[in-house]
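TASK: fixed-backbone design
INPUT:
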């Protein structure tokens, strides 16, 4: 059984740098040298986090099945014609990728904005080590759709989220 964590305990990865800084301070090392040590530690930590993130993403891509397109959109054109296509709803995408992301320490978050006639969704993909990447997608509001204003925004935002994820 793992030992209980002390609230003041540092993560294992931080302990060596703290010991090094303590030793440097004890020896009277200059502030500039301390700043360089901290910067070096940050670079090494960032590189390690990026490597762990890349490994998790490679495993995710190898393990995650294709997202099934379980919904159908039926479109009527202005000329009276019609067509349809299948797509994956956002909930279906989440159900498919979630069980493969989470065991690898990966999660996603959303941010969005509206600017004029466009909705922008930003999907952030984060690893437990702190490394993250993001992707964004802009979708125009479909003012020709027979929906209320809020429904147009929600529809465009959901589309943008699906594309960004």
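OUTPUT:
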């Amino acid at each position: 059984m793992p030992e209980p964590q002390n609230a003041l305990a540092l993560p294992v990865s931080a302990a060596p740098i703290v010991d090094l800084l303590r030793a440097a301070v004890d020896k009277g090392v200059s502030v500039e040298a301390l700043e360089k040590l901290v910067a070096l530690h940050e670079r090494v930590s960032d590189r390690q986090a990026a490597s762990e993130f890349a490994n998790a993403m490679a495993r995710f891509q190898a393990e995650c099945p294709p997202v099934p397109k379980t919904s159908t959109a039926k479109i009527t054109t202005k000329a009276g014609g019609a067509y349809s296509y299948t797509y994956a709803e956002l909930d279906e995408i989440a159900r498919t990728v979630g069980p493969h992301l989470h065991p690898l320490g990966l999660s996603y978050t959303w941010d969005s904005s509206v600017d004029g006639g466009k909705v922008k969704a930003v999907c952030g993909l984060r690893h437990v080590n702190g490394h993250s990447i993001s992707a964004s997608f802009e979708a125009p509001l479909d003012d020709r759709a027979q929906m209320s204003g809020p429904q147009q925004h929600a529809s465009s935002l959901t589309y943008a989220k699906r594309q960004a994820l």
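COMMENT: The two ends are 38 Å apart (CA to CA).
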